[in-house]
């Protein structure tokens, strides 16, 4: 849209687009929005106008409007305020990458230190390079700041993984809900923290996977673990060892999975 974006403007544009692709309005059941006021106003919002149009064709059946779960996840990312870390990181990265000479010299330093270059976060080289350029990163000497940096990196990785799980085709709302629940549990670690570290995240994902809960009820424990790959490699390996202690006829090997 290149002009005004009032509720009426958005509704007209949306209806026109859906009519062009031949949407059957009687089959519409819900509308997901980004929560903007023009979309959610009770009396004149896009959601209200959309409901009236749909119910006029479906005999007055229920029609739901809700805040898109993908957009909520994006808003959650924005609430992660760690300016004390981000300002230093952005300033340092910009100093190295925005100037061609600095970038080439830093790349050369990484090549010289071949052992360290294989690491994903070569803090030693960054510290050495910035000091050589007269721009030392004093925060590298602060234990508290380094802990904040590590926390931000970890949380960002989990948010990226969550974002990937919320993308793609042929997914239903319950799968999105499971992913969100698992992410929230990972932030608190509940009782999973009592487990070995390589099982913690997998057990949280498993606890929130409603699809696998159904398979457990249908398949039984002895064959359930064949459904865990590829998302739960550590739990699957543990199940193989446990099943090997039972009767041979119920042993599930990795080859049969």
Provide a descriptive summary of the structure in words.
Helix 9 runs antiparallel to helix 10 and helix 10 (173-188) runs antiparallel to helix 11 (197-207). The chain has helices at 7-20, 37-40, 46-58, 69-78, 83-97, 100-112, 114-117, 123-132, 143-165, 173-188, 197-207, 210-219, 221-224, 233-244; strands spanning 30-33, 64-67. The two termini are 50 Å apart. It is mainly α and 257 residues long. It has a two-stranded parallel ribbon.
Key attributes of the depicted protein:
mainly alpha, two-stranded parallel sheet, 62% helix, disordered C terminus
Distance between the termini: 50 Å
Return Rg in Å. 26 Å
Helical segment tally?
A: 14
The largest pleated sheet is described as:
2 strands, parallel
Name the helix and strand elements from N-terminus to C-terminus, one letter apiece.
HEHHEHHHHHHHHHHH
Number of strands: 2
Task: Write a short abstract of this structure.
This protein is mainly alpha-helical and 257 residues long. The chain has 14 helices and 2 strands, in the order H-E-H-H-E-H-H-H-H-H-H-H-H-H-H-H.
Describe how the helices and strands are arranged:
Blueprint: H1 7-20, E1 30-33, H2 37-40, H3 46-58, E2 64-67, H4 69-78, H5 83-97, H6 100-112, H7 114-117, H8 123-132, H9 143-165, H10 173-188, H11 197-207, H12 210-219, H13 221-224, H14 233-244
Helix pairs in contact: 4-9, 9-10, 10-11
């Amino acid at each position: 849209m290149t002009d005004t974006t009032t509720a009426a403007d958005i509704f007209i544009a949306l209806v026109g687009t859906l009519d062009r692709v031949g949407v059957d309005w009687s089959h519409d059941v819900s509308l997901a929005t980004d929560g903007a006021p023009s979309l959610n106003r009770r009396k004149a919002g896009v959601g209200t106008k959309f409901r009236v149009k749909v119910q006029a064709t479906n005999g007055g059946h229920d029609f739901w409007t809700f805040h898109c779960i993908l957009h909520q996840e994006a808003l959650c990312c924005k609430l992660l305020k760690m300016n004390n870390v981000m300002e230093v990181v952005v300033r340092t990265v910009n100093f190295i990458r925005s100037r061609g000479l600095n970038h080439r010299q830093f790349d050369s330093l990484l090549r010289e230190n071949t052992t360290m270059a294989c690491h994903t976060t070569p803090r030693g080289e960054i510290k050495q390079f910035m000091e050589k350029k007269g721009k030392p990163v004093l925060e590298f000497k602060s234990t508290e700041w380094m802990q904040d940096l590590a926390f931000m990196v970890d949380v960002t990785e989990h948010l990226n993984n969550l974002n990937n799980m919320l993308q793609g085709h042929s997914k239903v709302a319950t799968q999105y809900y499971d992913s969100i629940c698992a992410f929230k549990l990972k932030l608190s670690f509940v009782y999973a923290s009592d487990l070995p570290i390589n099982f913690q995240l997998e057990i949280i994902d498993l606890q929130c996977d409603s699809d696998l809960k159904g398979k457990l009820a249908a398949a039984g424990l002895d064959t359930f673990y064949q459904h865990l790959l590829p998302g739960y490699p550590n739990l699957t390996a543990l199940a193989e060892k446990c099943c090997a202690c039972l009767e041979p006829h119920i042993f599930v090997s990795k080859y049969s999975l």
